[in-house]
Amino acid sequence: MTSVRQLLAASVISVQNSCFVYPACQKCFSRLILDSRRFNCLKCGCTGEAKDASYRYRLSLKIADTNDLFDITVFGSCLDPFFGVTAENLQRCIQDLNQLSGETNIDASPGVLVQAVETCFIGKRFIFGV
To answer: Transmembrane stretches, by residue range (predicted)?
Structure first.
């Protein structure tokens, strides 16, 4: 089965998640399992120290073209220009803000960040490669 990449012009209806970065395996980009000191990739078996884990963008959106609604997820560095920083730098900012505010879930995105992402994307039209 051959897959053909197509372009889809569509408007963002909603942002489906509030956590925009995830710890990613450097080899296969799968989500890493983190504990306080180590990381582990269940897909390829890569391991290392938690402090060395890298992060990647993951933005789930509901979009609409003229005929249909779609759920789409945008991954990776193509989102750097929209956030103004790499996913790793955004993760550091999120952790710092959460530490200052006393948030116990260190990966939770602050509400102001969620609002900013919604303002940036909802109602805007983009061209998606699918």
So the answer is: none
